[in-house]
Amino acid sequence: MSELLIAGGRVVDPARGVDGQLDVLIREGVVVAVAPDLARSGSFERVLDASGLVVLPGLIDMNVQLREPGRSADETIASGAAAAVKGGFTAVAVMPNTEPAIDDEASAEFQLLQGKRAGKAWIYPIGAVSRGLRGDALAEMAGLARGGAVAFSDGDKPLRSAELLRCALLYAKMLDRVVVQHPEDPDLAKQGVMHSGTVSTILGLSGKSAASEEVMVARDLTLAGLTGAKLHLGRISTAGSLELIRGAKDKGVKVTCDVTPHHLTLTDEAVQSFNPCYKVDPPLRTARDVEALIAGVLDGTVDAIASDHAPHSPEKKDVEFQFAPSGVIGLETTLGIVLERLVHQREMPLTRLVELLSLGPARILGLPGGSLAPGVPGDVTLVDLDSSWTVPQEFVSRSKNSPFVGWTVRGQVRHTVVGGAIAYSAGAPSPASAESAS
Description:
Elements: E1 3-13, E2 18-27, E3 30-35, E4 47-49, E5 54-57, E6 59-64, H1 77-86, E7 89-94, H2 105-118, E8 122-125, H3 141-146, E9 151-153, H4 162-174, E10 178-181, H5 186-189, E11 194-195, H6 198-203, E12 207-208, H7 210-227, E13 231-233, H8 239-250, E14 255-259, H9 261-265, H10 287-299, E15 304-305, H11 314-317, H12 334-344, H13 350-365, E16 380-390, E17 408-418, E18 421-425, H14 432-437
Parallel strand pairs: 1-4, 1-5, 6-7, 7-8, 9-10, 10-13, 11-12, 13-14, 14-15
Antiparallel strand pairs: 1-2, 2-3, 5-16, 16-17, 17-18
Helix pairs in contact: 1-2, 4-7, 7-8
């Protein structure tokens, strides 16, 4: 019998309104009890001392790119899953923009199988909305659902066709799945490489206006209201977008949204360094937008925080800013960055952060987890809230394109438990290190 007792920690579980000193007992991969002083009730196969730590439902990242199949030099499912557990994530939802795209039943099953082989975080495929991510015809959505896809998206490619999105929403509604859309009007975006504003003018770089996002948000909200389907708008970056979403929610539209750590902490001013690690999509916006996003996080308009982990090998990023691919890695830094930014600096309740990083993603995608209630999978993240650490130059991820290297933050993962097994412990040798470097 497999048994693990997590003893002496502060359990924070907003799904059940729990915040107190409790023990967590996991047996055969499932939580069986959460109660005080379980350690005194007998002997256990394995005891994990959580004194001085907070014990959280396993974190879930709902926007991750793992590049397998097709671009394993950037990342594999194995290296990405190892990076996830180091960052405290017990589950990740993987975008379909691989080569070839995850657009049929077999490809979704492949990602599930690779996730099981990796033996770290749970891997949940997100299936493509359109065949080959081309935006001209629907993918095999029912087959993708059978293959294990938990949602549908064209990843970082916005759906230009309103009719295709309308049909996708209706099919997803029938399959009880959510459509995850990256809202951007390609015509208005004009292949810009940063936010369109004063900084882009000074630097002489082409810009993407806030309107390029907000126009698409308005269109997508209209279609969600028309179909009554569930829509998730990923990587929201502007104050205007958030206000549109807030208004749609007030009207009963079934919409949710997420924001990224980099959009909560960085502005377009960072691009003055011409460091390609500041090139992201959507681009870093203004200080006003950052403050609006933080306000949305605090008031409940934002439903999740997602890393938008987008690995690129060093040789791809080490070019002129305008020619570099967009995206940064985030699995290993997200928790520390948002703990520092929101909890330590803004005094946001820890329960709210757990909603954004665990309960919210679980509800949006219909995943098991998001709570430590008896009967749920034994996925747990143990964190030292006050431990300071500096983001290193080397990562478990195969790629190194982080905008946060050198930052010192408070809040460090000590243990990550997946299915009742300890998948990561700080200071312990990582078997993924050799794999990620090979």
